[in-house]
Amino acid sequence: MKYYDLIKTILQKRINNMKRITKLFFLGLFISLSIGVFAQPPRTCGTNTYFTSNAGWSQSEYYQIIDIDAATLTDAALPKFSTANGALNAADTDFGSGIFTTPIMSTVDGTSYTPTSVLWPIKYSLAAFAPTMYTSAWSKVNITGQTPSGNSTDKACTLNDNSIIQSAIYDKPGFIELCRLAASAEEPTVSRHGYIEIDNLPSVERIQWSYSSTSWKRGVKADINYNDGAGWIPLRWEASDISIWIATFAEQGYQFEEIIGQGDNPDSRVSIRFGIWDGDSIHVNPVKTDGSTFTTANFPLEQRQTVRIHQIKVFSGVIPTEAPSAVASVNANNLKIYLSENNIILSENAKVEMYSIVGKRVFSGVTNKIDVSNFNKGIYIIKAVDSEGKIQNKKIAI
Predict the structure, then answer these.
(1) What are phi and psi of 255, to 5 degrees?
(2) DSSP string for 333-391
(3) Running along the chain, 398 residues long, what does each successive block of 10 average in pLDDT?
């Protein structure tokens, strides 16, 4: 399948500007993989040494093909964050999984962009959408009157009230919170850590993204798949619970920029995934600035720390004219509901309500499995709303 088309009428005009020295791209990528921060000097304040990437995003001369802003994700079918404000974590039942689409952006002058009819699929797993809420730091100051998180012994250095290190995310509404829950008792070997994934992106030059959390010293990870058979590898992993790393100011938000360097490679495809930092079994004993090591194991099945994704921007050397076939196949698949032994199974996570034959609601939640082993025998009605807002009703006898 053809995934993209070079914009012939403007390609020659822009190609010279789009060229870069490949070695510099790979050097930038190496820095990102090695230390997880921009090549900026660390800041020392009191006993704390820390880095920041809140210098903002740089300009790219390549095409900005994807521009996701969580403030615009208001579709009623998306699983919503139900708690009162951004200072709190989402409720357990808020999280859902599915696919939403975002329009590929196009340009004729390389400056102004307009959405096209090409919709790119964005996978979300165990996520809750909060298009109107702000970062935890902003909400604590302006809504609940609390003090933002920081080092209790040296708040002049690390207070997350946007006065120490400026963040463009601090007072910007909109985020997608990823589930940080431990595996459930029913499925103890299945991780409930959420993620956002974008697949099969062509000729990616750079990716810009922002995240925040609900307290200080909370990390995040971004993995990349070069679609070369090697699978997912770390692109940026910021550790939680360590004050010298970027996660220090997680409560007010960070902007990251990843140089991929494939903007001039028409055959390149990459996939990107943002998720919960759940320990580290890949970077063994990373060395801190004081020479000591930070050691932790990988804990994908335990409760970790909150991650909220605010924006994702992708720059490419081409503007796709077709989305991956995943869009059509996903849209064509209807939600399936069936009984298997003592469980009602759904083919994907969905908002589910279950009623007895006399109309009494006996279950409500977001799930893909309902344990009915303790239910009375009889006829039940299941009403489910899938990730695209399609409603499925089914009558099942147990």
Answers:
(1) -110, 130
(2) PPP-EEEETTEEEEEEEEEEEEEETTS-EEEEEEEEEEE-TTSPSSEEEEEEE-TTS-E
(3) 38 37 34 39 72 81 96 96 93 94 88 91 96 97 91 76 89 97 90 94 96 92 88 86 79 94 93 90 57 70 94 96 70 70 85 88 88 90 80 84
Q: What fold does the segment set 333-397 form as a domain?
A: Immunoglobulin-like (2.60.40)
Beta bridge partners of 201: 270
> Would you call 219 helix, strand, or coil by DSSP?
coil
- 3-state percent breakdown (helix, strand, coil) of the chain, nearest 5: 15, 40, 50
What is the pTM assigned to this prediction?
0.74
Report, in angstroms and rounded to the nearest whole number, the Rg of the chain calculated over CA atoms: 22
Other residues' Cβ atoms within 10 Å of the Cβ of residue 210: 26
C-beta of residue 209 within 8 angstroms of C-beta of residue 222: yes
Domains of the chain by residue range:
8-330, 333-397
Give the tokens for residue 227: 């679609």
Torsion, Cα of 92, 93, 94, 100 (10° steps): 120
SS3 of residue 265 by DSSP:
coil
